[in-house]
Design goal:
The chain is an alpha+beta fold. It is 32% helix and 26% strand. It has a single domain, classed as minor pseudopilin epsh fold (3-Layer(bab) Sandwich). A 4-stranded antiparallel beta sheet has the order 3-2-1-5, covered by helices on one side. Strands 4-6-7-8 form a 4-stranded antiparallel beta sheet, with helices on one face.
């Protein structure tokens, strides 16, 4: 009896490897998409907390805030001091990744939103939410950042 593998055995192993490769590739592809949403949510939350911290520490003796813009072809957010303008931007602007968009229920197309934190107390100028979602994916890929008037930021 000769030792070795038959053609059927080799084809079976090759087919199993292809199926396993396809499953891994599909899972990694959806994971990459999820990473964009999670990373953007965390970056916005961190920027909001930085604005609050700078305001409470009276950095530059002014109020600090975060500007959200859904008014351009590329939505963005930016850290600013005093009031938002291109000359008062202290961080950013940071563009949303192409796979992430603002939820129109929280920031309509063409709209902007400024969340300003007051000096010393760190209270927010508005109590609001900023929703993010993935337009090319199903509704399971979404997140919400909540800003309370007390200054609490959660996501």
């Amino acid at each position: 009896m000769e030792k070795g593998f038959t053609l059927i055995e080799l084809l079976l192993v090759l087919a199993l490897m292809i199926v396993a490769g396809v499953v891994v590739f599909m899972n990694l592809g959806s994971r990459r998409i999820d990473v964009d949403l999670v990373a953007t949510t965390q970056q916005i939350g961190t920027l909001l907390r930085q604005a609050q911290s700078d305001a409470m520490a009276q950095e530059s003796d002014v109020a600090w805030g975060v500007h959200f813009s859904n008014a351009t072809s590329v939505p963005f957010y930016a850290l600013f001091k005093t009031s938002y303008s291109t000359t008062t931007v202290a961080g950013g602007p940071y563009r949303l990744p192409p796979t992430v968009a603002y939820a129109t229920s929280t920031l309509a197309p063409g709209a902007t939103l400024d969340v300003i934190f007051s000096s010393i107390s760190g209270t927010a100028s508005v109590s609001t939410t900023v929703g993010l979602y993935m337009p090319k994916e199903n509704t399971a890929f979404s997140s919400t950042i909540s800003i309370a008037s007390s200054g609490s930021v959660s996501f």
